[in-house]
Amino acid sequence: MLLATACARPLPDPESPGAQVYAAQCGMCHRAYDPGLMTPAMWEIQVSRMDEQRARRGLPPLADGDRRAILDYLRAHAG
Ligand code: HEC
């Protein structure tokens, strides 16, 4: 987990379940971006946009629970 974000700023609240899901699901193609970079509304758009990127790589859409955990986490730490 630490290795995946080693070259970026550490994620806020890194031990939380939301951070773990976020790092795992959103750090596989690029680094898991700092939640403070975007507003909650922007994160919602980005998370939806990433379904397209997942499909392009043959990955299934995010599970509902994961999507919720990721959005809750991003909203809680958004800019
Ligand atoms: C299957 C690979 C993949 C996954 C998984 C993925 N992304 Fe992405 N992401 C990309 C690619 C490729 C781009 C660049 C093209 C684009 O912006 O559509 C990108 C771009 C982005 C950008 C825009 C960066 C910029 O500079 O504008 C954000 C923000 C982002 N992703 C957030 C996320 C979040 C949040 C998740 C988890 C829900 C996620 N990504 C999961 C492939 C992925």
Keywords:
79 residues; mainly alpha; Cytochrome Bc1 Complex, Chain D, domain 2; 3 helices; 52% helix; globular; binds heme C
Structural class of the secondary elements?
Answer: mainly alpha
- Morphology call: globular
Largest sheet: none
**Strand count:** 0
Fraction of residues in β-strands? under 5%
The share of residues in helices is 40-55%
Identify the quaternary structure here.
single chain
List the helices and strands in order.
HHH
Topology:
Layout: H1 17-26, H2 40-56, H3 64-77
The protein binds heme C.
Residues 25-26, 28-30, 33, 46-47, 49-50, 53-54, 57, 59, 70 line the site of heme C.
Question: How does this structure look, described?
Answer:
By secondary structure, the protein is mainly α. It has a single domain (14-77), classed as Cytochrome Bc1 Complex, Chain D, domain 2 (Orthogonal Bundle). It has three helices and no strands. Heme C (HEC) is lined by residues 25-26, 28-30, 33, 46-47, 49-50, 53-54, 57, 59, 70.
